[in-house]
Amino acid sequence: MLGLHASLLCADDWSFHVRFQQEVAGGSGRFHRLTREEKWRPEETAIIVCDVWDLHHCLNAVHRLNQFTPRLNEVLKHARGRGAIIIHSPSDCMPAYKDHSARTRALEAPLADNLPTDMGLWCSAIPEEERAVYPIDQSDGGEDDDPAEHARWAVKLSALGRNPGTPWKTQSKQIEIDAERDYISDRGDEVWNILEHRGIKNVILTGVHVNMCVLGRPFGLRQMARNGKNVVLMRDMTDTMYNPKRWPFVSHYTGNDLIIAHIERHVAPTITSDQILGGAPFVFHDDHRPHLVIVCAEDEYKTAETLPPLALKYLGRDFHVSYVWGSETERNLLPGIEVLDEADAMLVSVRRRTLPTEAMAVVKRFVAKGKPVIGIRTASHAFSLRNNRAGAGQDDWPEFDSNVFGGNYTNHYGNKLVASAYRAMLVPHSIVNGMEKRPFRTGGSLYKTSPLEKGTTTLLLGSVDGQPAEPAAWTYLRDNGGRSFYTSLGHVDDFKNEQFIRLLVQGIYWANGIPVNEQVFQKSDSYWATTNVPDGPHSETAWYRCVLRLSGPWASDFSVDVPSSASVWLNGVSLTKDSDAAADALLVDDANLLVIRTESGLTVAPTIRSKSRTKILEGTWQFRIGDREEWSNMPLPAKFGAGSDIVFSD
């Protein structure tokens, strides 16, 4: 009977494919995107619905929220029916629910005997995030409305009797609350009491906004992760407050992807709503970006270092980009290659690898679907060993070059021969638009690639002294209708050449059938970037900012020591002329924005002091050159506007 009972319990389990990211090698900054299967008991699972408010100060945020709340409500209904508990957490809205039975139920949960000390506080960062650069600038609050439309929306909110800055009063009416079973709370300690009282081991976070409230609230991802809950983010039932006019100047949805990747690497794994409801994951209506997978496994030309910054800078507006990296321990493994089954395009930078049979089948299946393939440099011999064939359980693809690119790589000219490239066509083609017609020097040796297959169109020729010219970039229309673009360029020095950058970026766009907007190549160089303090010296006016999260003992006689020539602000309050203002401006157990303006840089790290404590603020700050008064503060409190990479705490 015991065995039968156990099997029945197992049959009722939820099975989740949990996605997480694992660093390829320590300090590499590259991550394998992997999945693992987990089985959860529904009655040991809670879904926390974070800040799904009825209204918001950002109109676009309201539009996006209204798109996914109907599906979120279905997720909650299904989960409730399976026995999971639902905790509704619309912050600042508890007065609207003071007589609601779900609110009463939350208040009546007995005090947990293991209540974490800081469970009632916002969490700005956890230790796992310390080594990461926070991926977006949200210090303007993330508003992405058209200014005129935003102004009209503020007027409408005022007419409704709402504060345009904080217009929420309840949770969205599209989310049903079961008065007999659910809970309502916006307090971390109350939520913890509920979880412990109900024996909850697994927590799913959903709601908005993932880069602010879902991460930082006392009941959010960071607090759940650092206090031992098996927590995941439902990544398709959330949104980000991000303005594409801020660094890294990508689309709103790419900003969302970057935050989710940060979470999967440093905070918690993720799942999608289809794992509860079936069907497909939710996608926002106007998110039409093709999913480009960059497959990178070559050591000679350092494309693992050159491709990610290029993709972020030039592709983040119109593409969803993800990566598959070669294993550091097993040459012929590409962990996560199965992502190609859901991809729209593939960029290959691989050199002489064989793959396990099932992995090679994924690559061949992708190509057979007629999807775009882009190749650079060693992609011509990506899956071909020099003089051998694949071993047992492994597959090669010597014909990859001819089959996929219409190429004919045989070798290369000597490394000491200086190579140059020039346009092969005088007629216009979108891939070479804007490129100079005169030759330019290329990095690395010139590949021998001729003759090309029928169906190719040569765009660029390369030459070395005393030898015939060789095709260096071309398009290929495959028999199955798929578009391919290949260039034998891709040496690390090529990525310093604007001509090569334009060629590769426009080749990627062409392969995907997307017209290139010239704005892709017009990027701002003025933004807050990270730097290590001490820093400098600088010959121009320099601004620095960080976040202080300090406990009670710091409140007594708090002060900031900086060079006498510097100007200092704490939470927007100037300390330059009145250092005594520091103690009044400091928010204990909260995030504090410290900003310093200097004429020469911070060659010595600032020091903060109190009656009983001293701390040198040596480490990661944000930095920019220029001089604008508004840089002394942020539109939102620091806990919302700052990233996790510039936080100094006790």
CATH class of the largest domain: Alpha Beta
- Tell me the strand order in the biggest sheet: 10-9-11-13-21-20-19-16-17
Helix content: 10-25%
Structural class: alpha/beta
Task: Give a written overview of the molecule.
- With 650 residues, the chain is an alpha/beta fold.
- It folds into 3 domains: 44-126 and 138-277, Isochorismatase-like (Rossmann fold); 291-513, Rossmann fold; 529-649, Jelly Rolls (Sandwich), CATH 2.60.120.
- It has 15 helices and 31 strands.
- The strands form 7 sheets. A 9-stranded mixed sheet has the order 10-9-11-13-21-20-19-16-17.
- Strand 7, helix 8 and strand 8 (270-271) form a beta-alpha-beta unit.
- The longest helix has 24 residues, at 59-82.
- It starts with a helix and ends with a strand.
- Mean pLDDT is 95; it is low at 1-9.
Keywords:
650 residues; alpha/beta; Rossmann fold; Jelly Rolls; seven-stranded mixed beta sheet; 15 helices; disordered N terminus
